[in-house]
Structure formats: structure tokens, C-alpha cells
Design brief:
The complex is a heterodimer of chains A (about 260) and B (about 160). Helices cover about 55% and strands about 15% of the residues of chain A. With about 260 residues, chain A is α+β, with helices and mostly antiparallel strands. The longest helix of chain A has 29 residues. Chain A is rod-shaped. Chain B folds into two domains: about 90 residues, Rna Polymerase Sigma Factor, Chain: A (Orthogonal Bundle); about 70 residues, Arc Repressor Mutant, subunit A, CATH 1.10.10.10. The chains are: A alpha+beta (about 260), B mainly alpha (about 160).
Chain lengths: ~260, ~160
């Protein structure tokens, strides 16, 4: 007997029943919405699209969360630099406001580090230490719209600065920062400039930009002392008259104030 | 996507082939029904354009065998035994035919495909190799071994070539 013939005899009677064919046709009509929609694709692509959108949201959301500054710390001694802090209290950018500041910023490795580590690294920088030993004054200003975070950062900064002499830590508003940046000053220097401007209206932001904080503070102290001792005559002179170079002990030479 | 008319035409032509291949691989009606529906759903959703009827038939054979293998590979299935895990023989078979049926279904899975395609569908080894996507020498080897195994079980009373 030939095996081909036997196989034909064995398998020929095996046939798909009409009931199974009809069930399958009904199943196909249902799955393809009467042969109008590819079910496999219609289910697959929206799922991929949703997954991609979620991934994009996570990426951009994460980027936004991490790289949006929520506070700034302005450090002024001349050099002047400002560091931006995110909500996770990490340093996300370092901005300089003059040549000295640029040199200091280049020498630091504080990006993506905690702000306390950053402030400590700045205060322990050889150049800053040398300036502080030389009786210079450093002002650290914390700026931020979130009062709670700013207060926390300010206390952290104060703890870092506690070991150093001639260090002043203060808080400033975002409006003051905007005004300071408009004048090309860091926030700490801007606050000192405002203080000095009250005593010496002829002072300009450009002049302050090149002064050290010690020079500014000394000038403020000196002018305050002068004003206290000559308060009656000072008040009578009016704004337009005081502040001319010859009237004070300071004169400008090569962008520096000298005593 | 293919139309309802195309699907009905394909079902008239290839439903029996799909059914027989399911029988070669699977052992119960529920699995056969699943594979039957899966194969025709793939056909409806497929965008393959067939050169001729032979090409279309070869597509059905390959898709059915792959669907059966996927089902058998399923972890749950491979670790459980179905209650109706029995090969049903066609009724009223003469004793010789019954022996052949039992001998064929006692062959390991990989031999059953080639034996069915060779003896029932009359495909040659090169044709089977193209349909299954296997090396032609592998098919020759599988055919030779399956013939030997059938000979051992059934004796020399049959023509195997």
C-alpha cells in the first residue's frame, strides 16, 4: 500500500465544520468592526503614543523640575558671583558679574552640588580666604520667592559663614534682583549701592561694580559718620549738592575708590 | 485589511488545510478553534499580496504551523495536561489505516509536519523547505528519519517513497 494514498484516506475526512467557519466569520466581523478597522493597529498605536507622551512628560517635567531656579545666592566681596539653586537645593548655574567674578567662577567646581557645599567651597577658596584675611567684607544674599526655602537656605548659609569674620548674610526680594541685574550688579552689591546712594547720590552702578565690599562698607560708614556729625548742614544742602568728589575723603582713580 | 468576500473565499479554500494542520499539532477542539480564528484574523489583517494560489496556500500552512507552535510553547500549557488530551481517531477506520494513524501521531512533533506535507499535500523536500523556512537538507533528513521510524513501527508492507 502506498503511504500517499493512506494519508489521503486518513486526512481527507478531516474538514472544518460549517459551524466553526460561521463562528470564525462572526468573530472576525466583531474584531474588525465589520472589516472596517484593523484592531491590532488601532489598539497598538494609541498605546505607543500614550507611552511616548508619558515619557516626554517625564523627561520635560523632570528637566523643568530640576533646572528651574527657585532661589539664588549672591556672594559679593569683589569678585561678585551669583549661584542659582533649584528646589532640590542643588546649584544649577553660576553667574559672574565682573572679570574677578569670572575668574572665581572658573576656579570653582560647584555645579550640581548642594548649596552648603558650594558656599563652603567659595569661602574656602584661596583667593577669597586671602581677601577675608586682608579684612575685606563678604556679603551673602539669599533671594527667592519661596519664603520657606529662602529662610532655610539663609540659615544654611549663616551656618557656613559662621566660621568667617566680616561676613554678612541677608535676604533680598526677587524685585531687587531684577533691578540689580538691570544695573549689571549682583544683588548684594545692589543693596550696598542703594545704601550708599542715599548718602552719596552721585555714585553710579559702574563705580560700585569695581569696588570691593570693604570699600563700599567703609565709604558708607565714613559717609554716615560725616552725616551724623554734620546732620543739620547736610540736610540743608539738599540732594543736588552733596556727593561731589571734593566734598568727601574719597576720590576715584582707575575705577577704584581710595582713601 | 482584506474584505469579507476575500475572507470567505480563503476560508472555503484553506479551512480544511488549517483544520488538518491543527489536528497534526493539537489535541483538543478548543485549541483548534483558537488557532483557526487566529489564522484567519491574521489573514484579514495581513497586507501580503499573494502571487498565486500556491503562494497563498503556503502562507496559510506556515502561519498555522507557527500559531500551533506558539500555543504549544506557552508556559502554562507546557506544564499542564489537558483532561481531553487524547488523539481522536476517525471512526470506522480499517485496522491497517488505524495502525498508520497511531504510528504517525506517535512521531515527534518536528517529523509530523514534514510527513503530513509530504504524503498528504504532495510537497517535495525543496517545497517544504521553502514553506517552513528550513534548510532543504534538514527537510531531507527529517523525511528520511520519519520514514525509518514509520517502517520500524509498521513494517515493510507499505511503500514509503
Amino acid at each position: 500500500m502506498n503511504m500517499n494514498d493512506i494519508f489521503k484516506e486518513l486526512f481527507n475526512p478531516i474538514r472544518a465544520e460549517e459551524e466553526l467557519k460561521n463562528q470564525t466569520l462572526a468573530f472576525l466581523a466583531e474584531r474588525t468592526q465589520r472589516y472596517t478597522r484593523s484592531t491590532a493597529k488601532s489598539h497598538k498605536y494609541p498605546r505607543y503614543a500614550a507611552a511616548c507622551i508619558c515619557l516626554l512628560f517625564m523627561l520635560f517635567g523632570g528637566h523643568w523640575l530640576y533646572f528651574t531656579p527657585t532661589a539664588q545666592i549672591s556672594i559679593d566681596i569683589n569678585p561678585s558671583i551669583e549661584i542659582s539653586i533649584n528646589r532640590f537645593e542643588q546649584v544649577i548655574s553660576v553667574n559672574d558679574f565682573n572679570e574677578d567674578g569670572r575668574e572665581l567662577a572658573d576656579a570653582l567646581d560647584i555645579k550640581y552640588k548642594n548649596y552648603t557645599d558650594a558656599v563652603e567651597q567659595i569661602l574656602n577658596n584661596d583667593r577669597i580666604e586671602a581677601l577675608l584675611t586682608n579684612n575685606e567684607v563678604i556679603t551673602i544674599t539669599v533671594i527667592g520667592p519661596d519664603r520657606q526655602q529662602s529662610a532655610k537656605i539663609l540659615s544654611g548659609v549663616q551656618a557656613c559663614a559662621a566660621k568667617q569674620r566680616n561676613t554678612y548674610c541677608l535676604f533680598a526680594s526677587s524685585e531687587e534682583v531684577a533691578e540689580a541685574h538691570k544695573m549689571g550688579l549682583s544683588c548684594g552689591k545692589y543693596k550696598a549701592f542703594l545704601e550708599l546712594h542715599l548718602l552719596y547720590p552721585n555714585i553710579t552702578p559702574e563705580m560700585v561694580q569695581e569696588m570691593t565690599m570693604r570699600e563700599i562698607r567703609d565709604l558708607i560708614d565714613s559717609l554716615s559718620t560725616d552725616r551724623d556729625s554734620n546732620s543739620s548742614s547736610y540736610e540743608n544742602r539738599g540732594n543736588g549738592h552733596h556727593g561731589h568728589g571734593g566734598g568727601y575723603r574719597y576720590r576715584w582713580r582707575n575705577g577704584r575708590t581710595e582713601q | 485589511m482584506r474584505s469579507e468576500q476575500e475572507t470567505i473565499r480563503a476560508m472555503e479554500r484553506y479551512s480544511d488545510t488549517v483544520m488538518r494542520l491543527c489536528m497534526v499539532h493539537l489535541k483538543n477542539d478548543a485549541d483548534t478553534e483558537d488557532i483557526f480564528q487566529t489564522v484567519f484574523l491574521k489573514y484579514v489583517l495581513s497586507s501580503v499580496s499573494f502571487e498565486n494560489d500556491e503562494h497563498e496556500k503556503a502562507w496559510f500552512i506556515r502561519v498555522t504551523i507557527n500559531a500551533c507552535k506558539d500555543l504549544l510553547k506557552n508556559f502554562f500549557r507546557s506544564h499542564t495536561v489537558s483532561l481531553d488530551d487524547v488523539i481522536e481517531q476517525p471512526t470506522d477506520l480499517p485496522p491497517d489505516y488505524r495502525d498508520v494513524w497511531e504510528a504517525v501521531f506517535s512521531l515527534p512533533q518536528k517529523y509530523r509536519d514534514v510527513v503530513y506535507l509530504h504524503y498528504f499535500e504532495d510537497y517535495t523536500a525543496p517545497q517544504i523547505s521553502r514553506i517552513l523556512g528550513k534548510n532543504v537538507n534538514t527537510i531531507y533528513t527529517l523525511l528520511t528519519r520519519s520514514k525509518q521510524m514509520l517502517k520500524e513501527k509498521l513494517g515493510g508492507a507499505y511503500e514509503y517513497e
